[in-house]
Fold this protein.
Amino acid sequence: MPILLAVALHPEARPVIERFRLKQDASFALPVFRRDEVWLAVTGTGRMKSAIATAYLVTQVEKGENAILFNLGIAGHTQKAGEGPVEVGDRFLVNKISEQGTGRSFYPDLLARTPLAESAVTTVERPLVRADADSVEPGLIDMEAAGFYQAGAAFLPPHRIGCVKVVSDHLETPRLDKNTVGELIAGALDDFEETIAAYRTVSDGGRDVLTDADVRIVERLRSRLRLTASRHRMLSDLVRAYKLHTGSDMPDLSKFTRVTIKTKQEGDAQFERIRDILSVG
Amino acid sequence: MNGSEISSRWGNFSHLYIERGAIDYPFTRRIRDRFAKARVVEIDDYKAVFARPRQQFQAQKESMKLILAVKKDRFLYDGSGHSQDFSFENFYYNTLMFNCVYNCDYCYLQGMYPSANIVVFVNLEDYFTATRDGIRDRSNRSQPLYQCISYDTDLLAFESVVPYCRAWIEFAREEPDLLVEIRTKSAAYRAIGDLPPTDRVILAWTLSPEPVAARYEHGAASLRRRLDAVQSAIEDGWPVRLCFDPVLAVPSWKSVYGELLEETFRRIDPTAVRDVSVGVFRMTKGYFQRMRRQRQDTPLLYGEYVQEGSTVTYPAGQRKEMTSFLRKRLGEHFKEDQIGVWT
Ligand code: SF4
């Protein structure tokens, strides 16, 4: 299962790259770092850049459609410093993403139980100043989450998309230096890693009884017997029915992968023989 | 990434999504109190959560969230043409909630809804108003308005969270021209057991052979506990309906369903039962296909099915044999007009 990470800035990415010992993979058109099943893209700032890089990552990585996808980054918080429980360095799993520009909201599916507290985030176009804090829902403020999420949700189910934010300021700090950003992210990495581990334990449900090996045999039969798309689907369902009703493995159909078919009728006849074998009547 | 396999899934109702417009309703407050530890997410419109693309129904079933919303319209659906209506001409149903706490393998909600999360509509008064209007405007005034309130869900199973059965029973008491059906696979009769019975509410139990209940009706009460509940309801004087629906073509279905009937009438006096209904498995084609795409792990969705019009069901011969078998056996205890059959 690929783990895909979309991170806006190099200073945010650096501690992650170090922790997971990622290496730059120059075969990508964007800065992408990877090792084994972990891939990290440095997306650039803003929701558009984040969306583009996220879509790119999901579609370029092999089996990207099976991935778990995370955005990790720093964020401001609407609460005034010292006037509530939230402090710089606190980290949150996002449960609601509001896009200031469109007024739309998005909701990652929270099936995995993680060590993180939760918060809403509002994605803004331009950094929000303290004076405008009341114009958005109380909570986190960032510039990427809405773009990231919409791009991810075009490919993945919502329970495999997560967004983790580390509070960097209370909308008062004009500019953070790189080291501070790196330290904030580094401080959140234990929780982040545990969060990813939790997401990995959640399966999609309704698991297919066809194993990869079954699928390969069905594929071979399809090309050998020149089955139409609908026959191919039917064959897959016949094998599922056989396995589910008998509780046994798929019967040996290898002899059908060796037959030679000259006409459509011959293909049909072989298909009927397979159907007989798989019949659970 | 050490991939340590800690158990890391939220249980049910770890999160409450609450529409801003639903916040001040009494049922919302009650549910918030009931799940005081749940994390609350404020939302504008329930559809933004419920109708997200690519949700995985069965993955969500293991950690269902609760969405509290205000229904804006369609408080009463015309049900004529659906289901067995026991020749009630004014047949209606409503949706007080979407989805169900149980998880039956054959449940068509998997094909009907984009999400397994439970939506509870908290504006009950609007439903009552629509029902009163429906009673007033019903076409056949010699019959009551017949309304199923647990149609796409199991309302009694959720009674401890939202006491809607109770509310509707009390409502029905005030409405002489209303007949309500509450259908369930639960044993939660005691949640309403303190209420005096009324002949304006039929309590309907779906009964399944124990092997079917145990294997395919996840979360629902065992047959024994359903029969206990039926017995208590009868003793208290409620009109009770027994539903054998869906009848499934499980291996040796004849003996399995034969035993179900024997067990049922060993425990329950048929003369104390208002009526019974029978229906062999059938489903709208679109739902069936969507269910198959959602899950490839249950034998109930893979096997010998035929398509008749827009319905997927068993081949006609088999269906007929199953229906006549049950009808004949039930005919030993019930008059013809007490047996509602979907054919
Ligand atoms: S009890 Fe009814 S509504 Fe609930 S899961 Fe089972 S079939 Fe579906």
